[in-house]
Amino acid sequence: MQTLKTMKFPLFVKKDIDGFFGLAIDNLVQMILIVSFCKMLCGMPDELVFGVILPGAAISILLGNLFYSWQARRLAFNTQRDDVTALPYGINTVSLFAFIFFIMAPVYEDTKDPYLVWKIGMIACFETYHSKSSPTLYTCRYCNYIYLNGFRI
User: Fold this and answer.
1) SS (H, E, C) 111-143
2) Cβ distance 68 to 87 under 8 Å?
3) Nearest CA to 151 among 135, 128, 131, 129?
């Protein structure tokens, strides 16, 4: 077995090309779904979708993948293993459908305000991924009703 000083940890190997294209195609499909659903189901204008949502998603995907790659490289060095790989980072398809159909689209149907829909969606994302509480409660200060897990109550 090689020692830590003699082991080589290349930044890229041939198998990474396949992984890159698989992840790139998956994220491209997610971006197409975001554009389609936000425009058709939530009435969002182009400046919101292409000026705010897509750039934010792209930066998130880039930084997430860079961070996971850095973690994998550190693990490879620390464990002296040359078979460590990074977890792919991207948009979860099931969550995308759930957020659009059960949270954002019902808000748009009731309010016809795409900017409010975007704000509610951001609150839902934050609440879902940064707290472990369930069920999740979303309130609308401009409306006289509350959304509980996507259903108006």
Assistant:
1) HCCHHHHHHHHHHHHHHHHHCCCCCCEEECCCC
2) yes
3) 135
Domain extent at residue 137: 92-153
Tokens of residue 95, six digits: 């969550």
Q: Which residues contact 37 (CB under 8 A, 6 or more apart)?
A: 96, 100, 105
Residues 119 and 132 grouped into a single domain: yes
| Region 104-133 average pLDDT | 84
Same domain, 33 and 87: yes
108-127 average pLDDT score: 89
**Inter-residue contact 103 to 124 (CB < 8 Å):** yes
pTM: 0.74
Sign of the CA dihedral 33, 95, 57, 61?
A: negative
- Tokens 């195609």 belong to 25
Asked if residue 66 and residue 99 are part of one domain, the reply reads no
* CB contact at 8 A, 35 and 56: no
Residues 83 and 103 in one domain: no
